[in-house]
Amino acid sequence: MMQRIGLAASVFVLTACTENGVQSTPQGVVQKVFEVATSRNYGELSDLCAPEADQGIQQICDLEDASQADQDRFSEVIAKGSIAQTQIKGDKATVNLTGEKGKAAGKVFLAKKEGQWYMVSSE
Predict the structure, then answer these.
(1) Bridge partners, residue 83, by sequence
(2) Angstrom distance (rounded) from CA 102 to CA 48
């Protein structure tokens, strides 16, 4: 039963991401980060940051040019994460994250520009 729920959730996320693009929802952007942590296709992160993104978030978008050690560290930690809750207020969104064993793992703040969502900062 849980496997079916997980599969249904995955199909929903993939459908939401592909119909209008990854950046059509804040969850789509963050889910893409998790997917890249597993696939290691770091170039797919380059367009997910807003121009005003803070240094920490910008480092995620620049991972394609990072050292192998930094890429490995990112993938090891981020691949264990998931989305817990999303709050959207106009053109701003907060995505709460959980890490290993479902513990709170921080937040990602996003902004919507010209219909697309971009990462701005995190805590």
Answers:
(1) 97
(2) 25
* pTM confidence score: 0.81
Q: Whole-angstrom Cα distance, residue 99 to residue 105?
A: 5
Helices 2-19 and 26-39 meet at what angle, rounded to 10?
Answer: 110
Burial class from Cβ neighbours inside 10 Å (0-12, 13-18, 19+) for residue 53 reads buried
Contact between residue 21 and residue 117 where contact means Cβ atoms under 8 Å apart? no
* pLDDT at site 26: 98
Separation between Cα atoms, residue 121 and residue 110, nearest integer Å: 7
Distance of CA 41 to the CA centre of its chain: 14
**Which domains, and CATH codes, for the chain?**
2-122 (3.10.450)
Instruction: Quote the CA–CA distance of 119 and 35 in Å, as a whole number.
Output: 16
- State the distance between the two ends of the chain, measured CA to CA, in whole angstroms: 34
Chain segment 65-99, per-residue pLDDT in tens: 999 999 999 999 999 899 999 999 999 999 999 98
